Hints:
Cofactor: Mn(2+); Mg(2+)
CATH architecture of the largest domain: 4-Layer Sandwich
CATH superfamily of the largest domain: Endonuclease/exonuclease/phosphatase
Number of strands: 12
Radius of gyration: 21 Å
Shape: globular
Protein name: Endonuclease/exonuclease/phosphatase family protein
Keywords: DNA damage, DNA repair, Endonuclease, Hydrolase, Magnesium, Membrane, Metal-binding, Nuclease, Transmembrane, Transmembrane helix
Order of helices and strands: HHHHHEHEHEEEEEHHEHEHEEE
Pfam families: Exo_endo_phos
Helix content: 25-40%
Distance between the termini: 43 Å
Organism: Fontibacter flavus
Amino acid sequence: MVRFITSLIFLVSLALFYSVYISPEFFPYVGLITLTIPVLLIINALVFFLLVLAKRKLAILPLIVLLAGWKFVGITFQMPKEQSDENGLSILSYNVALFSYSRNNGDSKETNKNIIKWLQDNPSDIKCFQEFYQDPTTPSRNAIKLLGTDQGYEYSYQIIEGKPRAKSYGLAIFSKYPIINEGKVFDTRRNNGVIFADIKVDKDTLRIYNAHLESMSIESENLNNLDGIKENYRQTLKKLKNGQVVRASQLGILEEHMKNSPYVNILVGDFNDVPYSYTYFTLKKYMNNAFEKAGRGFGFTYNKVLFFLRIDNIFYENPLNALQFKTHKEVDYSDHYPISASFSWEKPLQKINPEETID
């Protein structure tokens, strides 16, 4: 019986580890299954410990699983590293949730003032925003002026919904350095999409992608408490499945665009996907993740009851080197925490073959 259970756990674990490379377009529920990977790692560690105590040779099976699954440990938790004193290009990514204007509580005005003030004080060279809200008719809500032109930043703002001269929301990139080209990769005409900006940093040029992939489409009110999640679990599972499929399709468009980029790419944003996903592992094939290289702790970025999610990321290509990465958990004005990273590189910066991108 012990042999059967251990063997079953072994086979299921290896199958799950491989499933992160399967597109949800072919198997829609694969993204939900991979969420159990951390649990299986814990189970295998426990089984290994018990079998070693019992002096059973069968302990080799959970040991193989733990060795094969070690890559999932690195994307989940990072030990504190010595932070570099080197100054590099700094980038901030933040889903600002429309600057809380949609809130119907008395704290919305104060929250809005606080988030604007924090963003004005943040010294990052490049700032990327998802769910960016712009209202040029109201001075206190003219975010492009407050965060961009008044602060000495050039900007690229791509509207997803609304009109250019009226209230609108979309994706924005602000830069202290010149933006020499910009564009839209795609948008859903709802609230998701990807934009890019080519930014000239001294004599080098980088392409910055700002992404907001398909949302889970779960109402925030349903995530405020566990009872709401339980009551709507069937609907929630269906939305999670549909989101996985749409993100896989969006990822294909984004991949093709990045491969045709003439510059070294940095990809930031709200991916609405955890590290144990097809989205994450597809990007890891040819990009590095700043949290893995320079982060610490768990780096959770979601500010709701499901606090254990890391769905915001900063990916980058070689020969860039991540010096620092931080999740700003002290900034709780949105349902996401801001994340930031800084980079250095050997000059001149040259794009290299994608197959040689990963360290």
